[in-house]
Amino acid sequence: MRKKLIVGNWKMNGSLQTNQVLLASLCQAFDPANADLAICGSTPYLSQLQTCLSASSIEWGAQDVSSHESGAFTGEVSASMLKDFACRFVIVGHSERRQYQGESDDLVAAKAQRALAAGLTPIVCVGETARDREAGRTEFVVKRQLSAVIHAVGHCTSELIVAYEPVWAIGTGEHASAEQVQSVHRVLRAQLQAATGHSDRNRILYGGSVSPSNAAELLTLSDVDGALVGGASRDAHQLLSIVSACRP
Ligand code: PEP
């Protein structure tokens, strides 16, 4: 049985001071019996995450990584730099990066490959827009996005975490229904199984307006192995209630 994983995506939010308060509350009350927990913060705060979380069972990671190993790529952050701050995870292909930074499926795949080569676990985000869903293209889009990564990482596919994040559900307060989530997760699970030969290796998270009020319903679906949480992850009480909803 896959232990559930809750990942907080702080996005471009926080300050040294507010992070400190939030991390202290999380460390004090987090119960690892319910689920694993990780926080993905902005790069300048990775050192703070390492300092504050090292003695706890909460893990941490970054929100993006360069597809290059090193060199003349001003402003980019390499996978080995993330490893210097003991990151375990890195989010790749978040829809905000696909949308605002024009990241293609191939670039996302190269980032996932680079992360794996450095010993990081990529959390690969896939998801359809509202227009894709209305046009009946949901399955096609998520399979295309994941297939680019599987093609690039080959036998390391079993190391991936996948996050299904419908774009229309991110930050909108409108989460996908249990039926929609389970149906896409089943498709992704089958795709991963075809690539790895295993049905139970990869954790598939759901993300998109997860909150304490919908967590229990979404996190008990059979193919949902946890959640990628944006807005609610900046509030310790809300994030911990989402963790509690994973109670085995
Ligand atoms: C996200 O940013 O990955 C996310 C799921 O955001 P929210 O929970 O705010 O919808």
Task: Describe this protein's structure.
- The chain has about 250 residues and is α/β, with parallel strands linked by helices.
- The chain has a single domain (about 5-245), classed as Aldolase class I (TIM Barrel, Alpha-Beta Barrel).
- Helices cover about 40% and strands about 15% of the residues.
- The protein is built from 10 helices and 8 strands.
- The protein has helices at about 15-30, 45-55, 80-85, 95-100, 105-115, 130-135, 140-155, 180-195, 215-220, 235-245; strands at about 5-10, 35-40, 60, 90, 120-125, 160-165, 205, 225-230.
- It has an 8-stranded parallel barrel, surrounded by 5 helices.
- Strand 3 (about 60), helix 3 (about 80-85) and strand 4 (about 90) form a beta-alpha-beta unit.
- Helix 1 (about 15-30) runs parallel beside helix 2.
- The longest helix has 19 residues, at about 180-195.
- The protein starts with a strand and ends with a helix.
- The site of phosphoenolpyruvate has 14 residues, from strand 8.
Strands, helices and their partners?
Elements: E1 5-9, H1 16-29, E2 36-40, H2 46-53, E3 59-62, H3 79-84, E4 89-92, H4 95-100, H5 105-117, E5 121-126, H6 130-134, H7 138-153, E6 161-164, H8 178-196, E7 203-207, H9 215-219, E8 226-229, H10 236-244
Parallel strand pairs: 1-2, 1-8, 2-3, 3-4, 4-5, 5-6, 6-7, 7-8
Bound molecules: phosphoenolpyruvate (PEP).
Residues 9, 11, 165, 170-171, 207-210, 228-232 line the site of phosphoenolpyruvate.
